[in-house]
Inverse folding.
């Protein structure tokens, strides 16, 4: 284990009944870094977080958080972490302030310390005005912010954020991102799970891509994009033209795919200066009328598709929950 | 808000080690939380405020009108200990419902990631239940006094009578904790709890003398802990206690029997609740 590793896992496995949630994953997050764990619903992200935050025991493997073994020294792990789960983990009947004070007290702060810290956190998360209101009246974004604040009461060195922006509107998301960035700026180590590729791209130093309980790729955002290769060209014609694919041949770095109606063409390309202009000119010279030309830099969506063969938004959970054995299958994302 | 998020130079390290004081503080934090819940929805308390007043009035004026006790005793003097038994036994269900709510909600995941004393979740619940039992006792006693109940012994003895009831109610809350932990949700906890606790409080000497019950019920009633506690309270209140002539050990030694029952129930169900809680939250 590297000396400065704040989160370290080797070969973690976990199954729930017949469902394999984790098939053996390795993680390593150095102090002050932010690791993005990216994957669709049911990939095993939440299971990994539950094990690392001592909520669940692994079936196999080994993990330490802040140097403490999550199985044999759970109490020490809990003194060093803040956790924000997907489901509401605060008390609806208490006010925002009361929630923070209760959590502070249960974390071992004295009454005065807990009260002072709640004031600080409410202010830092723009919740001062709402602090005296019962949580039931909070919006989704406010709730998430308070949930995150609740994980920071004792200023733990390691924070786990399980899908911190799922279900938030775009403004609240961007605000949450700012908060998370500022945590890392202060030296906190963060493990963040997300289904959103742009979120991982935006926040994480390192990304691991998880699918069906296994890590299928890891690296920086740039490294992952490089695995998929270069850019992609999308051309839309006014009407189908069998000569179009041939006219594109000299620009593309692979096969040209043509849609069923023959109007849309897609191909991998090496992007270069004036590529779009050259493409339009070549097609025009061949007498082909072009509606639209786009050169896409690869997104993490493309990475995911290239790695897994299915899009990241595959509704695994919904499918399983509406199936005949919905009651028995416990899906954990 | 983004630049100054963690501006303080040092971490607020939890400064208090996990000693007795820390455990006490965790229990009181969770008890405080439960009390805030009650304060937000005071109707939650109807089973220890409105219900005991209503039951006491109904029993004293409806049943009391038709029941005659030997020796010219007043029915109300017989009834009050029975009312305490009925109300305190059924209100112990609060622990089952409250725990079930906690365990089926997301907040348990938060508690379990905090560096807290874990049994505080159970102990805090039982302490809350004890406090509501005190309220219940108060309402029954005051209603009783208003409708003519008169203890015939000294203040210490009367307080002792309340004490055996409160201890028993606290013991029952640990049994109900087990029910709350194994139940699927607060509704089923309440349903199952009622099916167990209601017969337990009725098939006893609480509301009627046991002498004329069919044999199996009579034996059950004479050994029922509710009967022992009720008989103990009647003795300590100096109120009529028809069970005094029953030749069963608990009825001959009601105070000792009620204390033994309460201690035995705690000794059995508190560890069981802790075990069931661990099993339930183990993943």
């Amino acid at each position: 284990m590297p000396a400065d590793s704040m989160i370290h896992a080797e070969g973690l496995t976990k199954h729930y009944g017949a469902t394999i949630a984790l098939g053996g994953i390795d993680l390593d997050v150095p102090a002050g870094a932010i690791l993005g764990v990216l994957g669709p619903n049911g990939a095993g992200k939440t299971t990994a977080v539950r094990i690392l935050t001592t909520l669940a025991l692994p079936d196999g493997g080994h993990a330490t958080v802040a140097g403490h073994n999550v199985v044999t020294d759970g109490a020490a792990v809990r003194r060093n972490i803040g956790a924000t789960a997907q489901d509401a983990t605060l008390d609806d009947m208490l006010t925002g302030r009361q929630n923070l004070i209760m959590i502070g007290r249960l974390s071992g702060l004295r009454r005065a310390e807990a009260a002072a810290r709640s004031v600080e956190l409410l202010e830092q998360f723009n919740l001062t005005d709402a602090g005296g209101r019962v949580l039931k009246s909070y919006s989704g974004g406010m709730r998430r912010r308070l949930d995150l604040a609740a994980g920071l009461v004792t200023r733990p060195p390691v924070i786990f954020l399980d899908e911190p922006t799922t279900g938030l509107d775009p403004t609240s998301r961007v605000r949450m991102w700012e908060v998370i960035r500022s945590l890392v700026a202060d030296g906190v180590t963060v493990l963040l799970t997300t289904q959103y590729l742009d979120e991982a791209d935006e926040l994480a130093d390192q990304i691991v891509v998880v699918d069906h309980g296994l890590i299928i790729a890891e690296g920086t955002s740039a490294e992952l994009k490089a695995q998929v290769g270069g850019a992609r060209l999308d051309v839309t014609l006014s009407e189908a033209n069998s000569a179009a694919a041939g006219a594109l041949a000299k620009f593309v770095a692979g096969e040209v795919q043509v849609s069923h109606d023959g109007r849309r063409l897609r191909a991998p390309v090496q992007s270069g200066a004036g590529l779009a202009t050259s493409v339009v000119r070549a097609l025009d010279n061949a007498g082909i009328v072009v509606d639209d030309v786009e050169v896409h830099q690869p997104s993490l969506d493309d990475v995911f598709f290239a790695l897994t063969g299915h899009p990241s938004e595959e509704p695994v959970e919904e499918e399983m929950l509406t199936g005949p054995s919905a009651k028995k299958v416990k899906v954990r994302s | 808000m983004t630049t100054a998020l963690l501006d303080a130079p040092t971490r607020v390290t939890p400064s208090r080690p996990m000693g007795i004081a820390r455990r006490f503080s965790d229990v009181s934090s969770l008890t405080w939380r439960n009390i805030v819940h009650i304060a937000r929805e005071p109707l939650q308390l109807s089973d220890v405020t409105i219900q005991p007043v209503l039951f006491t009035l109904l029993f004293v004026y409806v049943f009391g009108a038709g029941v005659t006790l030997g020796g010219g005793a007043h029915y109300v003097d017989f009834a009050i200990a029975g009312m305490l038994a009925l109300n305190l036994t059924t209100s112990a269900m609060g622990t089952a419902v409250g725990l079930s709510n906690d365990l089926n909600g997301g907040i348990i995941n938060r508690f379990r990631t905090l560096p807290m004393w874990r049994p505080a979740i159970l102990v805090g619940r039982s302490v809350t239940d004890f406090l509501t039992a005190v309220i219940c006792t108060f309402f029954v006693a005051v209603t009783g006094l208003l409708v003519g109940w008169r203890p015939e012994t000294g203040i210490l003895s009367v307080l002792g009578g309340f004490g055996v009831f409160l201890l028993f109610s606290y013991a029952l809350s640990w049994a109900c904790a087990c029910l709350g932990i194994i139940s699927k949700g607060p509704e089923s906890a309440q349903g199952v709890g009622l099916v167990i606790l209601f017969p337990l409080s009725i098939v006893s000497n609480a509301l009627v003398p046991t002498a004329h019950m069919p044999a199996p019920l009579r034996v059950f009633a004479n050994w029922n802990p509710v009967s022992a506690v009720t008989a103990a309270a009647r003795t300590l209140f100096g109120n009529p206690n028809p069970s005094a002539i029953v030749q069963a050990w608990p009825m001959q030694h009601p105070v000792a029997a009620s204390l033994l029952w309460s201690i035995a129930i705690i000794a059995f169900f508190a560890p069981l609740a802790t075990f069931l809680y661990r099993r339930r939250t183990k993943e």
